[in-house]
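Sequence design from tokenized structure. All designs in this work follow the same two-part layout: the structure record, then the generated sequence. An example of the structure record is given first.
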């Protein structure tokens, strides 16, 4: 039975990856949006660098390393540019989170709707359809993530683990100098970081399944759907989390490999700056973005597969039954006489 469960988890993950890869029109649109989102700060840095290095430095001498002299000569300008792009980056992060609500709705519309073709059109329809419900869920998710940070790095950890478990006095919570071994300090910090990472991953997985439940049942309450999802994950932890964990490991493996490759290219740039190596480095970054976009879609595909198997249907007609008709227009059921209008 255990072997069968592991095989089933692999099948779900592979089906999810195949389902996301089979929608290039969608992930290319998402990739273009993410590149455009990063283009503003990148152009600001490029324009400033072009002006700062226009006449005083040998062409190509600062490609691989700005150097201590350059940083000292332009410390005021670099500081001002960093502050400005930091503020813009905070605004862009908010835009990216809201865009994630739209993108999640688009993926779910495509994966839940039992029709074929016009993936891009259905994607935009689903993004608009679920945006406000997913935006409310985003606020709940941010509150949960803040709570996780407080539990792991705040008073609960300090009191329960450090004070009661390790007999650390309150004045030494930050430095942990009263512990007898440096190895113990490292182990505690590692456990703290691992616990935080695990809880954050659990909250993000909960968010994916909650969005899927909202779309699957076509309901409105993010809080009630979140409570139901938490109970479902508690009852079926392996079945719900295993496919997402498999996709995460695949993403980590691919990004780590691309990271090592990019480091080797950067090492060549330090020794000698050549245009083709810069182009290869840019292509590597784009490849990493492409894989992240595809695997994000695969997470939604896996959540749809699992939710259809273990989530109880609600006591009303299935909003995703087999029908004919364009997005947002009349839906004609196959084999029946009634029709509805999807809202």
């Amino acid at each position: 039975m255990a072997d069968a469960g592991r095989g089933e988890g692999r099948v779900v993950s592979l089906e999810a990856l195949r389902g996301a890869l089979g929608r290039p029109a969608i992930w290319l649109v998402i990739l273009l949006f993410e590149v455009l989102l990063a283009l503003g700060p990148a152009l600001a840095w490029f324009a400033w660098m072009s002006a700062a290095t226009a006449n005083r430095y040998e062409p190509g001498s600062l490609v691989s390393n700005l150097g201590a002299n350059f940083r000292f000569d332009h410390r005021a300008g670099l500081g001002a540019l960093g502050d400005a792009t930091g503020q813009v980056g905070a605004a862009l992060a908010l835009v990216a989170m809201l865009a994630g609500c739209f993108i999640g709705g688009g993926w779910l519309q495509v994966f839940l709707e039992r029709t074929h073709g016009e993936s891009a059109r259905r994607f935009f329809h689903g993004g608009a359809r679920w945006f406000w419900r997913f935006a409310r869920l985003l606020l709940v998710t941010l509150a949960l993530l803040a709570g996780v940070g407080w539990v792991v790095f705040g008073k609960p950890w300090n009191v329960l683990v450090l004070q009661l478990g390790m007999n650390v006095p309150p004045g030494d919570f930050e430095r942990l100098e009263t512990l007898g071994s440096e190895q113990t300090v490292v182990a505690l910090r590692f456990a703290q970081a691992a616990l935080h990472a695990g809880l954050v991953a659990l909250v993000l997985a909960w968010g994916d399944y909650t969005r899927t439940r909202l779309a699957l049942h076509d309901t409105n309450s993010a809080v009630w759907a979140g409570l139901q999802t938490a109970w479902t994950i508690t009852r079926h932890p392996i079945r719900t989390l295993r496919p997402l964990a498999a996709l995460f490991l695949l993403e980590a493996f691919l990004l780590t490999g691309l990271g090592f490759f990019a480091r080797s290219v950067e090492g060549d740039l330090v020794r000698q700056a050549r245009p083709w190596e810069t182009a290869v480095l840019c292509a590597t970054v784009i490849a990493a973005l492409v894989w992240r976009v595809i695997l994000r879609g695969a997470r939604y595909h896996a959540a749809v597969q699992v939710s259809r198997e273990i989530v109880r249907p609600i006591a009303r007609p299935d909003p995703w039954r087999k029908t004919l008709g364009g997005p947002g227009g009349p839906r004609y059921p196959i084999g029946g006489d009634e029709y509805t209008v999807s809202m």
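The chain has a mean pLDDT of 83. We note this feature because it recurs in several other targets discussed in the main text.
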